[in-house]
Structures are given as C-alpha cells and as structure tokens.
Amino acid sequence: MIILGINAYHADSSAAIFVDGKMIAAIEEERFRRVKHWAGFPSLAVEFCLKEAGVTLNEVDHIAIGRDPWAKVGKKIKFLLLNPSGGIEAVKNRISNSKKVASLADELVHVSPVDKAILKQRIHHVEHHRSHLGSAFFASPFEEAALLSIDGSGDFTTTMIGVGKGNHIEVIDSVDFPHSVGIFYSAFTQWLGFPHYGDEYKVMGLAPYGEAKYVDQLRDVIRFKDNGLFELNLKYFRNAMKGIITYGEDHIPVVATLYTDYFESKLGKARKKGEELTQFHKDMAASVQRITEELIFHILTSLQKRTGLKNVCIAGGVAQNSVANGKITRNTPFTNVYIPSAGHDAGISMGAALYVYNQTMKQPRQPAIWSAYTGSHFSNEEIETCLQQQNISYKKMEDAELYDYVANRLVNAGVVGWFSGRSEFGPRALGGRSILADPRRSDAKDLLNAKIKRRESFRPFAPSILKEYVEEYFTVTDVVPFMEKVFPIKSEKHTTIPAVTHVDGTGRLQSVDNSISPRYYALIETFRKKTGVPILLNTSFNENEPIVNSPAEALDCFLRTQMDMLVMENIIVER
C-alpha cells in the first residue's frame, strides 16, 4: 500500500511517502524553493517523494491531505455569525484557501499524469490536529499513550488532546480558535521586536538572560481553566475575524500584528526595529517562556490524570519549544515523551499519511521512527561534477582518513560545513546538513556568528553528543535523536564545553546513535579520541535561508561565508 501525505497551502508545506507503512521519503518544499516556510502547493516535494519511492502518482493508493475544510464547520459558521463586523478580506482569504485545499487534484495532475476522477477517489482529508497527533503517536514506540497537539491554529482548532492505542487515536477534547498558545507566544514575539513568521525560537533563546518577574501579570493575558485547558483574554489580541496569517502570491506566510493597543497600555510599548534589548525585554521573555511552560504542564498534568498513562506524544508548533519539552518528565506525571523530528506543520504530511494508513485503513503499526534522514542525497560523482563545473579544487578521501582529517581541522579552530547522507526532515540539522565546530572553544559562538550565521548573540548553539556519554554531561539522561529537548548540563562540564552551554547552564541535546547516524557518529568519535570530548557544536548549514539541500547550495554558502572547510560525502574543499 502506497500513501502520499501532503501539507499544502499552509506554512512549511511538505510531502511524505509511505510504502506498507514505512516512511520512504519526507521533505519540506522550502528546501527546493529556497524560501523559508514556503506555503504553496509542494509540487517539488511531491515529485521528490514519488521518485524516491520509484512510483508514479497513478500507483499511489491513497493521498492524505493534512487539512479538512469541513472540520468544525458548524463552529466556524457560528463564529462568523457572532462576528459580523469582522474583516471581509479575512473571510475571503479563508474561503480562497479552503477552495485551494479542496481542489488539490487539479495541482496533482500537473505533477504526474493521472485521471483526475480516479485521483479524487483516492484523496483523504485529515484534520490538521489529527494529522499532528498521527505524526507523534503512530511514529512513536508506544503501544498506548496520551496525546497532545498544540500550535497556533489549524482547521479552527488550536489544541487537541487524546489517547492513542494500537492503530487508533481517540480525541478527548480540544480548544477552538482564537484561544491559542501559539498566538499568545507569537504576539509577545512580535512585541519584543521579532516580527517574522517563525521567530518564536528567538524569545526562547533570550529568556535565560532575564528573570521571570511578570508571570503574575501575564495570568490576565492567558487563563488556566479547571478542565486542564485554557483561554485567552481577547482584549490583548487582534480581532481574529480580521485575519491572523495571510499567504500572498509568493506563498510566504505573513503574520498580522497580533497585539492590541490594550496590550501595550498594560504591558508597555512594543520594541521597535533597531531599539536596544533592555533588561525589561529579557525579563518579559523569561516570563512569557515561564508561563508557557506552566501552561503546558497544566495541560499535561490534567491529561495524565484523565488517562492514567505514563507515555505522552506531542506535536504542533508549540512542541518545538525544546526548553519546555526538556522539563516535562520533571514537572508532570509523565515519564516518557516522544516528539517527532518535524513536530511543526511540515510534519502534517507525515502525520496525515500515517493517520490514513493506521486509523482509516486499520493497518498494523510499523516500528518507531527514530531517523529524520528522509530528504535529498547525492553521490560523490554528482558532487565532483558540481565542483568541476565551477573549477573548484578538492580532495577525495576514504571515510577513515576523512574523519581524521576533519577532526584535526575542528581541533585547530576550524568551522566545517558537513553535508552527509540524506537531509533531515524538520527544522533541526542533525548531522546531515550541519555546520560544526569545537565545543571546547569559549570563542566558538562569536566565531560562528562573525564567519557565517550573523545572528543575534543571545541565541545558543547546540551540542551533538554520542548517546553513550549523555549521562556523563547532562543531569537528565534521555534518548533525544531530534534535538527536541533542552536539559541542564552538569555544572562541572560548563567550562569543558562552553560553546554549547547556554547562559543558564543548559544545552539543546542531540544524542547521536551509531545505528542511525553512522558517519556523523564516527566523526564525533574521532574527535573524542583526539580531545576526550564526545561532543561537537552543531548548527544548521545555512545563512539566513532554508537549510542547504544540494551540493551547489552548500558550495555557495561556503564561498560567501568564511567557513574553513566544506565536506560533502567523501569530498573536501578548503580555503
């Protein structure tokens, strides 16, 4: 059985393909379009997935669309009737977007020749948050688990809780738009001076520089309910009928200003572009992060009491809050947490496909997904051709020699672009498309920002650590393959790995497994043998763009920055 999953006309559009329940390929459209969070129809991602599976669209049995225009239609109509003075343009945008989703067959026939009438019979619309739940539970190692999907909004829902057992998900409850943790966090992200879609991680990185002084004040903005859920005080937020996110002809998501004059009257004027980040801003970031964590724990603690389960699976944009994720087992009764590599909206394609396979078609679960390496890959021959076409000189080495050569460069203050195997599905570089440095260097962060990343100084870099050594360096031991959790680093190790120890003594962990990432593991092991430290500083291979997808893009990034070495498979380019 072949199932194609699609996230279309929504931020982070993507495609994923499964054959008999096994994920063959999954990738975001932005990797091909070179536009962050691209939100149109993912035609190039679909073409890639079909090619990887070796099939045509005609051979696909089911097409799962992670969007259901008819979900909660009654509540949508009621909402419109109760808000007759809402912006007509926002209503038009929603109708237009729903029509696009409903007519995806028209787009698909352009990708691969197929009879449209037959194609329409194969299409399944899976509600946004059910797709999120599917991406988390059906990919998890748990036979039974509590489930949470939490984000900005999708199909009129912002939060959904449920239970998964075997190949079935049961929804327990949900929170309707516009009451949204995602909108809450995004409003403060904008107010703090970070206006772009997806900037929320900047607030998470800034928070440790402040003190959570304003949590009690924020309890008027977002209110915890006795049923384990929440609601917003809507006086602080933009009228939802005027529209929250729009997608222009360029398919770039643009978020409207979410905070109101009332918000500013209560909490202060918004920070403007170029204005100093004061201690007040840092304290407010800390407070926003703290109350968000408290809310997640509030939801999960109630969910655990309702279900009696010890395992939980989480997805949705708010599930990308790795700081909160790392605290779940210490602040709720849950003992095991699974979050997929693409917990954000790109994972909708994967989740919709899994939902159709397991829930709709009642097929048995497949082994848990622990690898995010489902994207593009290139041979040494293709890489050499790329370099030769641009008259770039290079070395070619066998693996053992290459690991030693690269590790020596890292030891000697080198910054290395590492392009190996298949690209990762999700927002994190995990040793497939990474920029690497020595974590022992106290100046590595400044070095990377000066040479390549050119990003805010308060944002941390992450440690990739051999999984056997996690307990030696972190106070919490866990399997974290997707860099989805932040844990405290042991105090005695702070001076050993200063480049990946954030100001609050934490690190966003990636535990590297030899069976999943053999080449990346081998490089870190070679570095360990030379230095005694089983860790590399890892950041995404890009410079204010989507993560590089092809050898040409990796080379271009190398040439326009001050990276010291570029390694693509067994090929090395140096300054």
Describe the structure.
With 575 residues, the protein is of the alpha/beta class. It has three domains: 149 residues, 2-Layer Sandwich (Nucleotidyltransferase, domain 5); 163 residues, 2-Layer Sandwich (Nucleotidyltransferase, domain 5); 195 residues, DHBP synthase (Alpha-Beta Complex), CATH 3.90.870. Helix content is 36%, strand content 20%. The chain has 21 helices and 23 strands. The chain has a nine-stranded mixed beta sheet, with helices on both faces. The protein has a five-stranded mixed beta sheet with strand order 3-2-1-4-5. α7 crosses α15, α8 runs antiparallel to α12 and α17 crosses α20. The chain is globular, with a radius of gyration of 23 Å. The mean pLDDT is 94.
Features:
575 residues, alpha/beta, Nucleotidyltransferase, domain 5, DHBP synthase, 3 domains, nine-stranded mixed sheet, five-stranded mixed sheet, 23 strands
